């Protein structure tokens, strides 16, 4: 039931980059040496993501979803195949690809404001400009009262909002999120999902969002990519034709339930990979 | 007289790999809010005072009971006498001068070397065997050799202190650099930071707690080494004074020496602890 995906445009992407995909993954294979044996983390993965599309990737552990993200972030090199962003091969990490980590990865010795300014400082922006930009993104994620607090004072949800603001501040053209809400409790997670979509609707970016939560995958995405393990591969792709803004009403609608069930079956009842010759 | 009777530093050397900056003494999280915590702290303070007063009382009683101790008033008057004669100040300055020179030079070299070892595997490969080897030798054990090579002036004493401080701090700094959270480095990389920036803005601040723990251990070890070195070869200093007093069976002076060494060590350790809390207050404490 594996479906190959081809370049496609979603409603959100009609004004995009003239037919070419924003993110293009072509036949990417990634293997790791594992005690005399080769572990195939990604096996011939191809995926195109259009400009301003929100794609979630869901799958069991070991399916290579984080590896796929690391390849796009430039933190890992594919064994073969290409990963391209804006038509250029990914050769290493860069500020045009913002990454949000599950463990927040805030610099604990810097305040919220200084964390958000970090990338701007690296880019060589002046003090006034840095401050102004940081202010904008602090407000965007609603951390105004905590601008001068250290990360240790923040709750998990606030830390992740700070990390999102920090990634946004350097104005990346795509955002890669690696299970960003995975460490949060269920209630905080729902709130942050709504806030993320709110931020995204105001500052449109192409997003690839990794998760292991089926509800989250469906709620956020234009399109859900389901991956399977051993070897890591794309198993199914589900379009989510639910309107934005995604309100609680959407979350409780029968259409949402139907899509959720469809993705659920894809994730939890995967047929094993055909043995390759 | 053996050097081991001198316990100059209040510092319990902590393993370099231990979680740094977790405070000293460890304050348990009080469950009952600030008031209860404050009252508990008062109780602890009262107990501290009771313990100190009690200890001095026992000393006094033992002295009066016929042990060969001087009584506390005798020690105090001896201290005043030495102070007025100028010898106490002279000895304290001589000892402090040596320990601070050796300690500062040792730490100043240990920090860059520790960073090099943590950051470049070539430096690690070249330096680690030597550091691991010398770490197992108490710096004092090198004193006979150093005395022969460097003479009996200030240099050999400063050198062994330098070695003591350097070895304690270099291991700790190196540990700090290698244990920097990989995710933080990745986060800086994806924000566009290059190697130099990552080093200055991520690796250095992230290893600061480790460096400070190394410096505290190094200071304790320097102080211990100093006093023992002075016992063996010096013309001034607290250790020297005690050595001389031993010859004349002057127990009061020995007691003054011990108390002053303890107080100075405690003050220096508290100063570093203060620096630690200022510089590493950002750490999350669990």
Automatic annotation (TrEMBL), chain A:
Keyword Nucleotide-binding: yes
Cross-referenced Gene3D superfamilies: P-loop containing nucleotide triphosphate hydrolases
Alphabetical list of InterPro entries matching this protein: AAA+_ATPase (IPR003593), ABC_transporter-like_ATP-bd (IPR003439), ABC_transporter_ATP-bind (IPR050166), P-loop_NTPase (IPR027417)
Keyword line: ATP-binding, Nucleotide-binding, Transport
Classification via Pfam families: ABC_tran
Keyword Hydrolase: no
Taxonomy, superkingdom: Bacteria
Molecular functions (GO terms): ATP binding
SMART domains in alphabetical order: AAA
Residue ranges occupied by any ABC transporter domain in the UniProt entry: 23-254
PANTHER family found in the cross-reference section: ALIPHATIC SULFONATES IMPORT ATP-BINDING PROTEIN SSUB (PTHR42788:SF13), TAURINE IMPORT ATP-BINDING PROTEIN-RELATED (PTHR42788)
Name recorded for this polypeptide: ABC transporter ATP-binding protein
Species for this entry: Isoptericola cucumis
Automatic annotation (TrEMBL), chain B:
Pfam families tied to this protein: BPD_transp_1
Keyword Plastid on entry: no
Keywords, in A-Z order: Cell membrane, Membrane, Transmembrane, Transmembrane helix, Transport
Membrane topology annotation: Multi-pass membrane protein
Region described as Disordered: spans on this chain: 1-38
All residue ranges annotated as the ABC transmembrane type-1 domain in the record: 92-272
Name assigned to this protein: ABC transporter permease
